[in-house]
Amino acid sequence: MIIVMGSGATEQQIDSIVKKIKEAGLDANISRGTERTVIGAIGDERKLEAEYFEALPGVEQAMHVVKPYKIVGREWHKQDSVIDIKGIPLGGKQVQIIAGPCSVETPEQMALAAQAVHATGCRLMRGGAFKPRTSPYAFQGHGAEGLAMFREAAKKYNLPIVTELMDARQIDTFLEYDVDVIQIGTRNMQNFDLLKEVGRTNKPVILKRGMSATIAEWLMSAEYIAAGGNHNIIFCERGIRTFETYYRNVLDVTAIPVLKKETHLPVIVDPSHAGGKAWMVPALSRAAIAAGADGLLVEMHPNPCEAWCDADQALNAGELKDLVGSLSLIAQAVGREI
Amino acid sequence: MIIVMGSGATEQQIDSIVKKIKEAGLDANISRGTERTVIGAIGDERKLEAEYFEALPGVEQAMHVVKPYKIVGREWHKQDSVIDIKGIPLGGKQVQIIAGPCSVETPEQMALAAQAVHATGCRLMRGGAFKPRTSPYAFQGHGAEGLAMFREAAKKYNLPIVTELMDARQIDTFLEYDVDVIQIGTRNMQNFDLLKEVGRTNKPVILKRGMSATIAEWLMSAEYIAAGGNHNIIFCERGIRTFETYYRNVLDVTAIPVLKKETHLPVIVDPSHAGGKAWMVPALSRAAIAAGADGLLVEMHPNPCEAWCDADQALNAGELKDLVGSLSLIAQAVGREI
Amino acid sequence: MIIVMGSGATEQQIDSIVKKIKEAGLDANISRGTERTVIGAIGDERKLEAEYFEALPGVEQAMHVVKPYKIVGREWHKQDSVIDIKGIPLGGKQVQIIAGPCSVETPEQMALAAQAVHATGCRLMRGGAFKPRTSPYAFQGHGAEGLAMFREAAKKYNLPIVTELMDARQIDTFLEYDVDVIQIGTRNMQNFDLLKEVGRTNKPVILKRGMSATIAEWLMSAEYIAAGGNHNIIFCERGIRTFETYYRNVLDVTAIPVLKKETHLPVIVDPSHAGGKAWMVPALSRAAIAAGADGLLVEMHPNPCEAWCDADQALNAGELKDLVGSLSLIAQAVGREI
Amino acid sequence: MIIVMGSGATEQQIDSIVKKIKEAGLDANISRGTERTVIGAIGDERKLEAEYFEALPGVEQAMHVVKPYKIVGREWHKQDSVIDIKGIPLGGKQVQIIAGPCSVETPEQMALAAQAVHATGCRLMRGGAFKPRTSPYAFQGHGAEGLAMFREAAKKYNLPIVTELMDARQIDTFLEYDVDVIQIGTRNMQNFDLLKEVGRTNKPVILKRGMSATIAEWLMSAEYIAAGGNHNIIFCERGIRTFETYYRNVLDVTAIPVLKKETHLPVIVDPSHAGGKAWMVPALSRAAIAAGADGLLVEMHPNPCEAWCDADQALNAGELKDLVGSLSLIAQAVGREI
Q1: Does the model's pTM come out above 0.90?
Q2: ipTM of the complex in this document
Q3: Superfamily assignment of B2-63 in CATH?
């Protein structure tokens, strides 16, 4: 940790900081500049909190120089992690496209959706049974009954299922229906009790980025899951909130190479929630794969105009098929395959 | 709801929209402009979803014209609501300052804190037993044991206690320790299952604004609580996330008059988390009261330099006393009292 | 234009709005909903200002339904515009990579840079003679002398030159040195007098997006140039400002398909300023081309470590060559060529 | 400057950095931590650019520890600067309210406006002759003719005039009409050539904050003016751009105490452009004065409903009078007067 003293800091204040550092079991290096004195804390600085030092008299700023995350960091685990989802690899050479409807509506809809996902060559299916809706008066999802419908529809094509967990109290239900991949939604990225709970399972977890979460906060949320023992974590970039009002969110493609540098875990992209409109999905999907994403989470509905939620962002079966075709060429261009 | 058709929309597409509106039990008004046709849906438009219409062929944009919230909206409830907290009114003429440490640390610290809160004339006390921390390796709070310490310390001065609930599974513990005001933190503003849970109690709830939540989303989160039957809701502005890096968050004072216009419920401000530095707290507190806030949630620690978390943002007892004094004049200037 | 009346609007207020609309030469359509009355203004609504109506008693909100831009809009000009830059097409099948250093430093540096740009097969060259620097104490560019150096170096390989204009008073100097493409930088996107000035020339103009400009504002800035008579406009996305601090800006790839929908003019991307680090450039460049960009503006320096500004974001000649190679495959995947 | 080396940095890379620091005439301090080596550059670090070091092999991050601004910084000029505007002090005990219309429209409007400004006890008047409008088709202001009308109207009451300069080529016209305070608008905060130009005059300058400018960038823009010799600079916070769509901008009150700490120059607030609605102005004005602002820049129009621009944000004469009355109490509460 580096502690920058204010321009008027006294010798006594400097001594007092050094003493605090030594009390925590670290060593101190003092660098006296022309206008500022800088103190370096040498040792395991993860024990120190910047806020603690910033509250002490004479201190202008305190900064960590080492990464606060360990298990998920590439610094300690150089090679890419490949997550195994019922035999399907995520994070390796093969790019995975996880498709399916926003919400589980009826057995018929799910049967048609599963058929289309399978027919386009996608190997995993998504669908929501518990839905985080902005309004309490909107459809909240079918809940456990929805999981049953989803499980049933996916079984026919042997598609592993991905679905969102919103509440720690539902985790037993998820295990009972043998959900293959647990999704943590954007609004729960910092629901720490929920993260701890999925950290206790061994299920692959898709961790969506919070609407205005920094890369550092996102990595720390993954560290929560990893610290519980579950290292099967997949990051999912889904657009961030900005001042722009033309589209729902701004897909942050820069996050892809940055995460690839900071963590060994796979990174996928949700182009449907990012843009919020079906017509934006192909361009955003291509950009994501070109930038190095390991997969996509795409909304597809057998009949988008009749979808119960987010109707305007789902592709239909034909559009999904066309998309997969075009992505295949992009994947090849970056040395991957679909 | 207003539905704007694209410039090339056909008569058939317009007819189809009108049909959908009528199927939902509403009436349609068609306004043919020079370049665009606009369709108005007449009736209870809360039944309609904008996304649904935006997915239909020929539609450029669909917008609600009525507010999506009902119970919390001032449109249906003109006079200010005053929340009663063990006899202390929040939302009336008297401005309430809720002070206390970021986290419950020790019985001694809590005893000193309670004494200082009482001595400065504050009528409610805050303190965290369950702490949402960015890092899994940071102090997570004392949990139920912390609630016990807090209860014990506050009892002596008859101070109602305010503390954060992070997980629906802890609600019984909160009721057991008779927490007076349940705080929903910024990271849980859209944890809808948690909101539903506090909606089932009759405890006053402080609903902090999400880090990048719009006013509309915030009101809808309150509507979740209200829809469950609990109308004792207090909004708490605590700063929003922006591009600025000098301070932790940007205190959004504009939210105060805007909420006062949109809702009948009280609005308080947390100047400590907004700025992130103790020296910013007085100016921000004065701005909040001057803009019409009904109260403040301020961090105070008997010995800030030794605080276990957010040490750099807590006031000490003397600073709190000075602050209350200066706020008293501001309150008078806007026709309130402290 | 749509004017939504507040819930308590009186008949008199509604009449008054209708009168104002008719005074402006438009017609009015009144739609009386259950909770709100909506008035549509029929005719050329570009004559009306939303702010004007929002100030009138009883009005809740006023919104345009037609696009405020005409010349640059695709609604009135369906096919793609291809800009001719000394015989090199921008906006057609061929993707153009404009490379060169951040700033013109010395004749030797420019000679090496021009050679490298040419050797990698790029057909246009960039370089800054007038530099917008955050600090008054930083190198401000060589000015006119820099233009001379740039012109000289580019002549050998017949490379058209792209350089930034910061001040309307310099436009004669730009014409004198026959600058081929005038760049309007991010800080000047809404320097309306400068836009009017380049609108009077017939030089191709690269219009960079303002750091926090919306798509709509950006299109209106282009409309300023176009309204002056110069339709040779190229949009350049260069990253927007957000809360994320890991990278300088967030490259907004969604802007690419959105601009392609809204305007007939070409769209290029500056991956160097977006990410701010040379190692991010390849991934961002690939994403941009995959999303449909017509070209790139890339920083390349013969010796990045010695660059006088933005040293950390320039590629060297070898890296540029590798990048062009990898982009060629991406371009093919989307039916383009480099 | 502090240079943090990456975890795998070699001795040779460290030596090379030290050599570069010494070549620049500074000294180096090496602090070898458990996981990172940190190098401190000792001497006048303003000569060094962080980007230059971040481009060198082995470097993870480079950071300045001293402030990049000198003349405007409080570190070198402890006491508050009071700007003299034709005998009226800005920055002292007296809070100044600068009122007037958004744009100069007609001699009659200006006469009525000047009368109202004077009658409410305001000592300075604002009005725009050159208007930065998002659309090229909107009213662009009366230009020099508008300055003449403004001068004429203000003369009667001896009100110093404040008006916006958009283009360096107009500066002689401004001097000719003896404009008392030159306003640099939000879109020109980083129009560096314009800043240099006003730096060459001795006229007081109101420097509005860029829509998404950081405090540090804003201070550096002021430093541009100061470096030219003109130290009569007044900062004007006018709201920043965020994700919130309910109001035009978010008034950043935190900027007030922060600027007061960082600079000795006065800080005023524009509550009209911040919120964008007249009804928000009183609350925002009170918040600004309570937070320590030295003045306000308020839009007032003799007949807001007929204003040619920003009609919805102007107060009328009566509202201005009421506002000044209520602000008087707030000013007293913070030891100031109006």
Answers
A1: yes
A2: 0.95
A3: Phospho-2-dehydro-3-deoxyheptonate aldolase; domain 1 (3.30.70.1140)
